[in-house]
């Protein structure tokens, strides 16, 4: 399922070039998989999803930019970005999807100028 989410991203490079657009793509992919996510990552397993997404997206970023693999700043930013966005969305999932994603995306202003 995490691979399905990754494969549904229009432009994987946007995680670095345009994180706000990437955020919208990522949450659109989440919403397509929502039923499976609810079953597979229920209750105590819910923390496994952002971890799996982080690892998958790190590998994606590192395949596009191998020079980032050992860059602590990039790794910290990606971790904060994925976990923060995931938990903010999850805590507000009963609100309007587009609004929640829009607010989360507006907070993600980082672009990799590293």
Protein architecture, described:
The structure is a single chain. It is built from seven helices and no strands. The protein starts with a helix and ends in a 7-residue tail after the last helix. Helix 5 packs antiparallel against helix 6. The model has no long low-confidence stretch (mean pLDDT 84). It has helices spanning 2-7, 14-17, 19-32, 34-40, 48-64, 72-91, 97-107. By secondary structure, it is mainly α.
Layout of secondary structure:
Elements: H1 2-7, H2 14-17, H3 19-32, H4 34-40, H5 48-64, H6 72-91, H7 97-107
Helix pairs in contact: 3-7, 5-6
Mean pLDDT: 84
Topology, number of strands = 0
Q: Tally the helices: what do you get?
A: 7
- Give Rg in angstroms: 13 Å
How helical, in percent, are the residues? 55-70%
Head-to-tail CA distance between termini: 31 Å
Structural class designation: mainly alpha
Q: Tell me the fraction of residues in β-strands, as a range.
A: under 5%
Order of helices and strands: HHHHHHH
Query: Main sheet, how many strands, which sense, barrel?
Result: none
Shape: globular
Poorly predicted runs are none
Short description:
The protein is mainly α.
Which features would summarize this protein structure in a list?
mainly alpha, 114 residues, 7 helices
